[in-house]
């Protein structure tokens, strides 16, 4: 089985559920066994992501923002304040779940689950290295865009069902924003597909790491053809569209605390709030995971292939750090300006990028 | 210094009076001169006529304040008029009305700013204004019984306005199936209202179709409390509680100036320099806070800008604490001087202050890098919240709000007091008329204030040790002449902060009226925001830099 640990071979990777099946002997029980193995795999990946959000939300985010804004942040409980995670979890989960009188149920109850769930679903097709890869369908990239897009429905549900005008405005902004930015996002993603020649995530990763862009003379370092290096223009476009997609500065209009209190999440409290909040962080991480996979060579990095997951998480956190940096330093644009940037700027640029990429790929081929 | 100025005023006075008498003519029933300005008594039916002539012919374009009060035999409304070009050229129009039927013509058609001022007069004193477009209570709840500053009001009777007994201000149902608009309550609890402010907005999509600020949530009867305190000691602590975000000394100066004028007290020069120093430190702290909170409104919560401005403001706060012993409620000025001299050892205080001044340019450069040169910030702020100069004047806007609209009006220069006249500094104006201009205006004013502070430090350092007189000789009980009236204003952080005092010969004022700059500035919000988007409304509100403690008093 050891040979299968390096998952960077040409698409013929052994997926996590199969490995669990074989390691635990569950695969001998036919479809039922495979199903249980799949659930176990999903459980592991989901918990990994949730744990990351747990660290990010109450602790890392505060520490990072504090560093940017010349503060100290949490430092009382545990070393470096890390146990604030426990305190916050207890605090949030033990609070009364207040449901507004005018809430439209069950949409109100479903929205947090949709928001958090859609992001978790996306991680199913992401190759995270060290053999952590749940599924590798033919249409991997399309799948991940599709499920990430479901979150918009969750936002509208939350905004509409809360029975609060601020939530309503936040929900409407979220839709307008997501429509305006999902198209450039997907179109830019397609330029990567043109290079890779496949929508399959593992192949996109493999293509990036198999080819060498150039070798640094003297050091004998082969620089892999990560798409961020091959096509930096697409990388920047994708990054920007991604900030709008996850609703972070300068595009955090759906929440815009100074204007809309907290937008669609105004009325959520206790467990529901935790879910919405988790969902937001999961979306930032999913955005980071997509960027890492299609632009930064996925789990690839120096050292043995077993370190794949470490490199992968590092890349996700780098994207997370960037969102926090922008949040601290950049003002938000106005909703009409945002729509303008989306439709008149990014959309045009992303199609130009696609045409350019197609031409280059055609020439090389 | 002040005797010279008074002599000048008297020399000019006759000329001005003749001209005024010519404009007002026989509509002037009598003269009722105040300490600060000539006063003319006019008939309640002639108010608009007289004001229009004064505005258009004599050039009194600034209705600074409207004071209402009750005497034993009459109600009285006083319009304190000034010129933006020369605020020392003042005139008071006194409008008496009978006790039984206190109805007077409204000045609102002449000066838009009279709208809110007259509502306040109606609310607190009970004078009705004919022709006022919207004469409702402004500070007290709609259901309040009686007018608290009128003579027949029972001060002892408690009035508890509970939500169950009286109307909830947020309760009315604004749903209208015919309409395409949405009613939205911004506040009273909202992250961007900088206090307890309720803005009733009507939205068409995200565009503001109609807007009305609802104030009074922080009304603490400051005027009445001042009327119940003695001039000498008991009033001075109150001004700290109007604009409570580190503008305390500026507010204290407003009262100090009014009472010193009324009781003819001369403040020693040394004390004036200390006052100037303290006041400008307050202005720096206040403008830093304004910049930081404006960044909150445009950036999002707890951004770098907000924390940076607070970090730098903290140094000023430390200096003020060393000087006054307090961080917010300074209570440092005294009638005729200040409470105590600079803290010992003086060298240490000077060194700290100079360190701050040395570091300031680098910090201002950092703010410019981080905020004003940011392109997103510029797209958000340029050409939003537009306030044309004429509109600003009409609404009685002052301070950085007026100066951001190109109105060159600063009482420190135009109506000098303290030590400003002898110092080198400039009045900052900007022609942008938008949110961006107001922000830049404040940032540049911080630099100008730093210049003033530096000169004050030089003066104080070289001041001969045997001449450090911090307090004039003021009688223990201060009783200005009966029926002496004055209206005096200083340039506070937010604009013209004026105090009207009428003495009845006792040791407490018979009427104490506060002209708050935030009150007048806020009244222009609707004009600035209608037709713009919600984010622009929030930004405009932030750029007005209101403090609700001062709006509601």
Textual characterization of the structure:
The complex is a heterodimer of chains A (365) and B (553). Chain A is globular. In chain A, strands 1-2 form a two-stranded antiparallel sheet. Mean pLDDT of chain A is 83; it is low at 1-11. In chain A, a hairpin with a 4-residue loop joins strand 1 and strand 2. Chain A has one domain. With 365 residues, chain A is mainly alpha-helical. Chain A is built from 13 helices and two strands. Chain A is 65% helix and 2% strand. Chain B is globular and about 65 Å long. Chain B has two domains: 2-130, Beta Polymerase, domain 2 (2-Layer Sandwich); 222-552, Cytochrome-c3 Hydrogenase, chain B. The relative contact order of chain B is 0.13. Chain B is of the alpha+beta class. In chain B, strands 1-2-5-4-3 form a five-stranded mixed β-sheet, covered by helices on one side. In chain B, strands 8-9-10 form a three-stranded antiparallel β-sheet. The model of chain B has no long low-confidence stretch (mean pLDDT 86). Chain B is built from 17 helices and 15 strands. Chain B has helices spanning 2-24, 47-56, 114-124, 222-227, 248-262, 269-299, 304-324, 346-372, 375-381, 389-394, 399-403, 411-414, 435-462, 517-523, 525-529, 534-544, 548-552; strands at residues 28-31, 39-42, 62-70, 74-82, 91-98, 103-105, 128-130, 182-186, 198-204, 207-214, 333-334, 337-338, 485-492, 495-503, 509-515. Classes of the chains: A mainly alpha (365), B alpha+beta (553). Chain A binds chain B through residues 65, 68-71, 165-166, 169, 249-250, 252, 256-261, 327-337, and chain B through 182, 184, 190-192, 206, 295-304, 306-308, 311, 370, 374, 376-377, 379-380, 533-536, 538.
């Amino acid at each position: 089985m050891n040979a299968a640990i390096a998952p960077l071979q040409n698409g013929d990777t052994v997926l996590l559920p199969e490995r669990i099946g074989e390691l635990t002997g569950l695969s001998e029980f036919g479809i039922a066994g495979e199903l249980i193995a799949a659930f176990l795999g999903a459980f592991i990946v989901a918990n990994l992501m949730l744990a990351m959000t747990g660290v990010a939300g109450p602790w890392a985010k505060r520490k990072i923002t504090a560093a940017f804004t010349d503060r100290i942040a949490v430092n009382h409980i545990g070393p470096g304040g890390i146990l604030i995670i426990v305190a916050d979890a207890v605090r949030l989960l033990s609070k009364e779940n207040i449901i507004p009188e005018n809430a439209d149920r069950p949409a109100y109850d479903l929205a947090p689950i949709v928001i958090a769930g859609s992001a978790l679903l996306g991680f199913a097709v992401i190759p995270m290295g060290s053999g952590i890869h749940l599924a590798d369908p033919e249409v991997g990239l399309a799948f991940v865009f599709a499920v990430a897009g479901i979150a918009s429905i969750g936002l509208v549900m939350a905004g509409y069902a809360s029975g609060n005008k601020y939530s309503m405005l936040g929900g409407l902004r979220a839709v307008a924003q997501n429509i305006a930015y999902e198209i450039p996002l997907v179109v830019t993603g397609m330029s990567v597909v043109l290079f890779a020649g496949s929508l399959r995530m593992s192949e996109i990763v493999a293509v990036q790491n198999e080819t060498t862009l150039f070798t640094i003379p003297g050091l004998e370092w082969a620089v892999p053809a990560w798409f961020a290096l091959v096509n930096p223009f697409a990388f920047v476009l994708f990054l920007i569209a991604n900030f709008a997609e996850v609703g972070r500065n300068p595009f955090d209009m759906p929440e815009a605390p100074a204007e809309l209190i907290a937008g669609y999440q105004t009325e959520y409290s206790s467990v529901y709030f935790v879910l919405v909040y988790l969902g937001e962080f999961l979306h930032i991480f999913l955005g980071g995971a997509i960027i890492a996979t299609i632009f930064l060579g996925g789990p690839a990095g120096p050292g043995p292939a077993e370190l794949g997951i470490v490199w992968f998480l590092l890349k996700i956190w780098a994207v997370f750090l960037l969102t926090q940096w922008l949040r601290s330093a950049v003002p938000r644009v106005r909703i009409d300006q945002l729509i303008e940037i989306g439709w008149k700027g990014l959309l045009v640029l992303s199609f130009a990028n696609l045409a350019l990429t197609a031409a280059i790929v055609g020439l090389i081929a | 210094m002040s005797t010279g100025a008074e002599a000048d005023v008297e020399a000019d006075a006759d000329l001005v009076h003749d001209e005024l008498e010519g404009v007002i003519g026989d509509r002037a029933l009598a003269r009722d001169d105040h300490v600060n300005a000539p006063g003319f008594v006019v008939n309640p039916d002639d108010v608009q006529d007289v004001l229009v002539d004064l505005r258009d012919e004599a050039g009194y374009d600034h209705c600074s304040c409207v004071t209402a009060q009750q005497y034993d035999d009459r109600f009285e409304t006083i319009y304190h008029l000034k010129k933006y070009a020369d605020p020392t050229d003042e005139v008071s129009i006194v409008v008496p009305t009978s006790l039984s039927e206190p109805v007077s013509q409204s000045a609102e058609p002449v000066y838009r700013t009279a709208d809110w001022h007259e509502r306040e007069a109606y609310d607190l004193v009970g004078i009705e204004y004919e022709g006022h477009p919207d004469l409702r209570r402004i500070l007290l709840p709609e259901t309040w019984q009686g007018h608290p500053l009128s003579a027949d009001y029972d001060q002892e009777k408690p009035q508890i306005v509970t939500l169950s007994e009286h109307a909830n201000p947020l309760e009315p149902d604004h749903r209208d199936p015919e309409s395409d608009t949405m009613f939205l309550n911004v506040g009273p609890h909202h992250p961007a209202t900088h206090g307890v402010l309720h803005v009733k907005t009507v939205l068409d999509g995200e565009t503001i179709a109609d807007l009305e600020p609802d104030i009074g949530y922080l009304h603490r009867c400051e005027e009445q409390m001042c009327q119940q305190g003695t001039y000498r000691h008991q009033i001075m602590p109150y001004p700290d509680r109007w604009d409570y975000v580190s503008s305390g000394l500026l507010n204290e100066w407003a009262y100090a100036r009014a009472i010193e004028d009324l009781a003819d007290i001369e403040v020693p020069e040394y004390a004036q320099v200390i006052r100037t120093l303290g006041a400008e430190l307050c202005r720096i702290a206040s403008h830093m806070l304004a910049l930081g909170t404006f960044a909150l409104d445009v950036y999002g919560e707890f951004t770098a800008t907000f924390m940076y401005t607070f970090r730098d403001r903290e140094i000023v706060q430390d200096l003020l604490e060393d000087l006054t012993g307090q961080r917010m409620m300074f209570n440092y000025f005294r009638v005729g001087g200040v409470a105590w001299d600079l803290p010992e050892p003086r060298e240490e205080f000077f060194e700290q202050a100079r360190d701050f001044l040395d570091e300031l340019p680098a910090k201002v450069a950092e703010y410019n890098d981080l905020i004003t040169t940011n392109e997103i910030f510029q797209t958000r702020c340029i050409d939003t919240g537009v306030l044309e100069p004429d509109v600003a004047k009409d609404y009685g806007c002052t301070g950085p709000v007026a100066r951001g609209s190109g109105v060159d009006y600063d009482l420190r220069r135009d109506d000098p007091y303290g030590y400003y006249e002898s110092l080198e500094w400039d009045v900052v104006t900007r022609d942008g008329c938008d949110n961006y201009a107001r922000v830049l205006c404040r940032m540049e004013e911080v630099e100008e204030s730093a210049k003033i502070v530096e000169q004050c430090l030089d003066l104080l350092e070289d001041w001969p040790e045997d001449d450090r007189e911090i307090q004039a000789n003021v009688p223990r009980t201060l009783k200005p002449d009966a029926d002496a009236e004055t209206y005096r204003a200083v340039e506070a952080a937010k604009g013209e902060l004026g105090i009207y005092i009428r003495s009845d010969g006792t040791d407490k004022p018979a009427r104490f009226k506060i002209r708050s700059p935030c009150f007048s500035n806020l009244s222009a919000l609707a004009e600035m925001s209608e037709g713009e988007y919600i984010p622009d409304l929030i930004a405009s509100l932030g750029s007005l830099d209101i403090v609700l403690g001062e709006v509601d008093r």
